[in-house]
Model the fold of this input.
Amino acid sequence: MTIMTRFAGLALAGLMIAGPVAAQDAVADAIKARQSQMRLYAFNLGQLGAMAKGAIEYNADQASAAAGNLALLSTLNAGAMWVPGSDSMSVSNTRALPELWDNMADVGAKAQALAAATAAMNDAAGNGLEALQAAMGPLGGACGACHKAYRAPE
Ligand code: HEC
Done:
């Protein structure tokens, strides 16, 4: 048994003892956690995007830092943040569509595609503006593909 699954088991046991109020808190916390991860994606991607379109000057160190953060973020084990019952039909404050929970294999594939795109950006970002720009499309596309399928419009 891995540490992660043992931790998940403990968390579940805790929910069953504490009852529905704590369960609601756990759902709200999980939603906040995953939205926070998404915000960190957006912050770091935003820096790369601003350089790509010339809104701020290209800086190899800054680009590498943002790309490194994206690569790291996309390798987090975020499984516990997507608890059943935390979809947009069941609770408020989330835009995660219920379809996400019916298509976990595809969600995993889209997360893998993002990890591949962030790794490519991590290799490219410090190698000049053109290399960064070339990696931008696939990276933005990996974010967008998942949002199109599993995120409700604002
Ligand atoms: C595997 C699917 C998936 C991938 C890949 C993905 N997202 Fe998301 N994203 C979601 C879902 C689902 C939500 C809605 C989460 C919620 O509201 O609970 C979301 C929400 C967001 C939000 C809104 C957060 C908030 O505070 O409500 C932002 C910003 C965001 N994503 C940015 C990104 C960026 C940038 C990338 C790529 C670097 C990315 N996402 C990749 C699925 C994904």
Notes: The pocket of heme C is lined by residues 31, 34-35, 38-39, 41-42, 45, 94-96, 100, 107, 110-111, 114, 142-143, 146-147, 150-151 (CB under 6 Å). The CA atoms of residues 89 and 98 lie 7 Å apart.
